[in-house]
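Entry for alpha-D-psicofuranose complex. Fields follow.
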Amino acid sequence: MRIESSHIEKHNNKLIASHVRKVKQLSREIPNTQRIIRKLMEFQIAIPSWALGTGGTRFGRFSGGGEPRSLEEKIEDVGLLHALNKSSGAISLHIPWDIPSNNKKIKALAAEHGLNFDAVNSNTFQDQPHQKYSYKFGSLQHVNAKVRQQAIDHNIEVIKYGKALGSNSITVWLSDGSCFPGQLNFRKAFQRTLESLQEIYAALPTNWKMFIEYKAFEPNFYSMTVGDWGQSYLYASKLGPKAYTLVDLGHHLPNANIEQIVSLLLMEGKLGGFHFNDSKYGDDDLTVGSINPYQLFLIFNELVEGMDARQMNHATDLGWMIDASHNVKDPLEDLLQSVEAIKIAYAQALLVDRKELNRAQERNDVTQAQEILQQAYRTDVRPLVAEARLRKGAALQPLQLLRELHVRQQLISERGSKTVATGL
Ligand code: PSV
Ligand code: MN
C-alpha cells in the first residue's frame, strides 16, 4: 500500500489550526525556533530491516500479521513510515536476513520511496543452513583459523552488498565471548578478533566507516570479546581512522552513564553512531524514550554540545539508527513512536542555553546548571517537531494517520495474517 499526499493533506487540514496556535505560542517563548525547525527537518533516523516484523523471546513470538515477506516489502514498510514522518529516510540492512536479489532493482525501489541505505550489518552470531563451520564458540575470535576466515569472508561480502546499494558503513556486532571462566584466553581472543577485524578493515572502500558495536552480555554470559566501550575503543583505535565505536543504548550494565561515554568518545573523534532503543533491565530493545526519556535527552545534550565543539554536521556526521524489537506492539506504530522520541530529545537538546550552562559550570553553580537542563527537558517541543514534519510534506500526527488509514489491516489483506519477517 502507499500513502498519498492527498491523505496527508486531508489529515493536516483537520489539525492545522490548533497546530499553528501552538507553534506561535512556542516561538514567542523560545529563541531560535526557525533554526531548530530547520535542524529537525534535516535529521533522519535509519530503520532496521530486522525490526519490521514482530520480535520475540525464546519463550515465544506472537505475530500481529501483515509482516513483510521480503526485502521489497520491508522497503515498502519503511517507505510508509517515511511518507508519514519524512524522518525515516534510510534503511539499515542485516545480511543474510536481507540479501538483495537484484541490487539495481532494490536500489531503485528504495529511491522511489525516498530512502537511502544506511549501515549494513553482518551476522556471525547465527549459523546459516549451508555454512561450513559453526560459530558456536565464536567467529572472529575463534581458535580455528578456518572459522575466522569464514567470518571475515562474510563481512567482506556484506561490504560488497552495501557498496552496490550505496551504503557507506558496516556495523560489526559480535556475539563472541565465553560462557564460563576458563573457557577463553581473553588476550588471545582479543588478538584474534583484532587480526580478523584488520582484514575486514582492509576491504573497506574509501569513504567507508566501520562501526564496532559493543555489548555487555548475551548471548555469552561470562565475557564478551567486545563487551564495553573501552574494548570497542581499543579495537577502533588500533584499526585506524575509518573505525569507530557504535553505541547501542541497551548494551550497558545497569545505571551506566551513557551520556558520559558518548561525550568522551566524541571528544576522541571515535564515536561512529547509535542503535537507539530503551530498556529497564538489559538489552530489552524497547521503544526509544519509553522508559528513560531523560537519559535520552542527556545523551542528545552531550551530542549537540560535543558535535558543535568539533563543528560536525548533526544530520550526517554520525550514524543514527534504531535497533528495537516489538513483541507486543505493531512494529510500524512502535517505530513511529521511536523516531518521534528521538526527535523530541534532539529538539530539547537544541534548546539548552549553552552559554548559560557553561557560565553555571564555571561558577560551580550546580543548582543553576540543573535548572538550565531541566528547563529545556520540560519544554513541550512537540509542536516544533510537528512543524518540521509539516514543512517536509509529512503528517502532523503520523501515528494517528497510520491508524486512520488502517494501514495494518491493509497490509494483512495484501500479505496475509501468518507472514513472518526475517530477523530475530
Ligand atoms: C545485538 O543485540 C544487536 O544489538 C546487534 O546490533 C545486532 O545486529 C542486532 O541486535 C540483532 O538483532
Ligand atoms: Mn544493536
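NOTE: The chain has a mean pLDDT of 97.
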